[in-house]
Amino acid sequence: MLFLGTGTGLGSAMIFDGMVVPLELAHLPYKKGRTYEEYIGLAGLERRGVRRWRRSVLDIIERLQAALVCDSVLLGGGNAKLMKNLPSHVILGANSNAIDGGIKLWHDSLNPLATKSKSIKPEAAPLKPR
What we know:
By secondary structure, the chain is of the alpha/beta class. 36% of the residues lie in helices and 22% in strands. The chain has helices at 36-40, 42-48, 50-68, 95-110; strands spanning 2-6, 10-16, 19-23, 29-31, 34-35, 73-76, 90-92.
């Protein structure tokens, strides 16, 4: 699952096999010498208007989903509520989820035993030459 947070900027992370992978996609080039963040962050919303901003959000979701080969996208952040008619693979998330997740990470970091992921699998046996 790819997470994209549209607020003042553009936040991004991927959940892969139960692990959170932080990403920095906001500053990748997009169009006309501008970045993804400049199109779907707050500055892009104010500069281009809601209708054009929505089209850019959907376009960027499609591009990133294809590039990162993810099954679904969770769209959150303060401006996500402005979206309409999202495709079935895009889920609208609440900002409270990010706050709850941050608190959980904070508490887990204070308890070293809690940070051991149950989803980590032991290494596979090395392949034997034929």
